[in-house]
Amino acid sequence: MKTLVIGANGQIGRQFCALAAERNLPIRAMIRDRGQIPAFREIGVETVTADLESDFRQAYEGCEQVIFTAGSGPHTGPDKTLLVDLHGAIRASDLADELGLARFTMVSALRAEHPLQAPERLRPYMAAKHAADGYLRRGRTPYVILKPGRLTDEPPSGRITTDPDSVAHNHISRGNVARILLAVAGNGGLRNAEYRILDGDMPIDTVFG
Ligand SMILES: NC(=O)c1ccc[n+]([C@@H]2O[C@H](COP(=O)([O-])OP(=O)(O)OC[C@H]3O[C@@H](n4cnc5c(N)ncnc54)[C@H](OP(=O)(O)O)[C@@H]3O)[C@@H](O)[C@H]2O)c1
Fold first, then answer.
1. For residue range 71-93, what is the model confidence (pLDDT) as tens digits?
2. For a Cys-Cys bond, which of 20, 72, 115, 143 suits 127, CB 3.0-4.6 Å?
3. 171 lines ligand 1 (CB under 6 A)
């Protein structure tokens, strides 16, 4: 099942693409900047250049599932949160519905459903993620929603928990999220499921394999 990776040049996206390429999983990396093409070509990953703020329909051609790990990031304002994290995600979900895709995997955020409990600067982002998750749930496309806590650049442990109450921290490495995406991409049977994910004790494959 060929996977379109939206946000492929991001820190999670790049790690996921490298892992998928090692395992010969068919993927297409959606990137914004043609200058990013050589890095993907080097690892044997096909690219398509498109932007969530314009028409990106052509990026879906020949793909059967989507991984959405794009985000406007911490260095832009609520305008980009609205256009990328909310409207971009909604349009990506709409295209998946329209084209009859087999699955849409969303990298959301832990506790996105409680935006008013987040630090003030994160509230618009959490509200956008919550609304985009709800839109995806109500669509026709089977979905997987992953809700990671604070992302770190620690080396991936390969071990996680889906029960945030069982640990006394709030973080997960980007490498672990990339490995979870790999397990999900390879497990076509996973549908209409949501997971809160933090670093923990459980091997990723025992949860998602
Ligand atoms: N930071 C946290 O603690 C945290 C916690 C929970 C969830 N998350 C979610 O996890 C996601 C992935 O994390 P990350 O660290 O990999 O993020 P990242 O490195 O900031 O990557 C985000 C990617 O989205 C792409 N992007 C931004 N605007 C776009 C647009 N208009 N069209 C297409 N692509 C666009 C960026 O493209 P360029 O490479 O061209 O800039 C980048 O490749 C985040 O976006 C966030 O929603 C983050």
1. 999 999 999 999 999 999 999 99
2. 115
3. no
160 sits in which H/E element: strand 159-161
Could you tell me which residues come within 8 angstroms of residue 46 by beta carbon, excluding any fewer than 6 positions away? 27, 28, 29, 40
Token pair of 140 as six digits? 């026709």
Domains of the chain, with CATH numbers? 3-208 (3.40.50.720)
Report pLDDT digits (tens) over 90-121. 999 999 999 999 999 999 999 999 999 999 99
At 48, list the tokens.
């398509």
**Is the CB of residue 51 below 6 angstroms from any atom belonging to ligand 1?**
yes
**Catalytic residue flag (residue 143):** no
CB contact at 8 A, 156 and 175: yes
Q: 96 CB contacts (<8 Å, ≥6 apart)?
A: 60, 66, 104, 139, 141
CA distances from 194 to 18, 105, 163 (A): 24, 10, 12
**Ligand 1 atom 39, closest CA:** 9
Ligand 1 and 73: CB distance under 6 A: yes
Q: Ligand 1 centre from 154 Cα, in Å? A: 18
